Amino acid sequence: MSDVRGWTFSQLDRARAQRYCLVPNVTTPQVLEPRSYRQVAESLAAAHRRVDSGILKVFLAVDPLEREVRLVEVTTEAPTTMEVLPVRFRPTREVPLPSAVLLLSPEEWAARERREIDVPDGWEHLEEL
Amino acid sequence: MATDRDWGDAFFAQAADDLVAAQAAYDAGVASSFCMLMQMVFEKLAKAVFARAGAPAPQKHQVAARLVAVLRRTPGSAAVLIGGARTLAGVEELENAHPAVVADAIRRGVAVQYPQLEYPWLNAATNRVEWSGKHLPIARRVSDPEDRIAADLLRSAHAFVKHFDAMFP
């Protein structure tokens, strides 16, 4: 499937992602440097670990088109309700891609491993960060 | 004559409506209104809990954080459905930013004007008028994906509303 310029949507999405994935240069903050999808995800996971000491595991639910950084976080901070409620965030200077976070309690994660609950559609491919 | 149960049901119903509005404000990217509505959600949920327990609904705005703190210290309580320390801190921060709480702190001389929900204020240090959409710290945090407080508050509030009847019959 292609647009009028002959790009596939996948190529376009990747190009957009590469344009968005820019971070301030260390020595000259006004200069933005390219950063990969995974680097953005790792940086976001690290930020969440800094603010939530109850985090036990963080997974990246890989978006094949790399348009959205999706984190599944197992944390004692989350209530246990056996519900999946991803919350989305808009891009910022520090997190230059749309992002979403799904908080699961340890009990909910165990239930997910027993296949009693599942992550949202499209979030199945989890890579631990 | 209206019973405590009537008050509890009404507070709960309004809290559930406020949560729908809060979610809509969040999805629209209006962080300051999201914060104002989330404070309303937690305050009304807490008042509903007290009313269902047969106690008069407290008139104060700082009621939700107290309730959550009590539940979290009670083993086997409904705290498992509410969330952890970050959620509690977020609820407290919202409550402390209620304009009536800020006004009371100023009146008692324990604070000078500080950022609040809903209404603009004068920053005496700069002599400039400020407003929650730009100057309220928790509203800025809500828009920050690295902070995650929005996810904590929404997860907790949705759980609280969904399981309210089971937790507080």
Task: Provide structural commentary.
The complex is a heterodimer of chains A (129) and B (169). Chain A is of the alpha+beta class. Chain A folds into 2 domains: 1-31, no CATH class; 34-128, Beta Polymerase, domain 2, CATH 3.30.460. Chain A has 3 helices and 7 strands; from the N terminus they run αββαββββαβ. In chain A, strands 5-6-4-3-7 form a 5-stranded mixed β-sheet. Chain B is mainly α and 169 residues long. Chain B has a two-stranded antiparallel ribbon. In chain B, α1 (4-27) runs antiparallel to α8 (149-162) and α4 (85-96) packs across α8. At the A-B interface, α2, β5 and β6 of A face α4 and α8 of B.
Give a quick set of tags describing it.
heterodimer; A: 129 residues; alpha+beta; Beta Polymerase, domain 2; 2 domains; five-stranded mixed β-sheet; two-stranded antiparallel sheet; 3 helices; 7 strands; globular; disordered N terminus; B: 169 residues; mainly alpha; 9 helices; 2 strands
Set down the secondary structure blueprint.
The complex is a heterodimer of chains A (129) and B (169).
Chain A: H1 9-20, E1 22-24, E2 32-34, H2 37-51, E3 55-61, E4 69-75, E5 87-89, E6 99-104, H3 106-113, E7 126-128
Parallel strand pairs in A: 4-6
Antiparallel strand pairs in A: 1-2, 3-4, 3-7, 5-6
Chain B: H1 4-27, H2 31-52, H3 64-72, H4 85-96, H5 99-107, E1 121-123, E2 128-130, H6 132-135, H7 137-142, H8 149-162, H9 164-167
Antiparallel strand pairs in B: 1-2
Biggest beta-sheet profile of chain B: 2 strands, antiparallel
Distance between the termini of chain B: 21 Å
Largest sheet of chain A: 5 strands, mixed
Strand order of the largest sheet of chain B: 1-2
Assembly level: heterodimer
Low-confidence stretches of chain A: 1-20
**Strand percentage of chain B, roughly?**
under 5%
Give me the Rg of chain A, rounded: 16 Å
Which class of secondary structure composition applies to the elements of chain B? mainly alpha
The number of helical runs of chain B is: 9
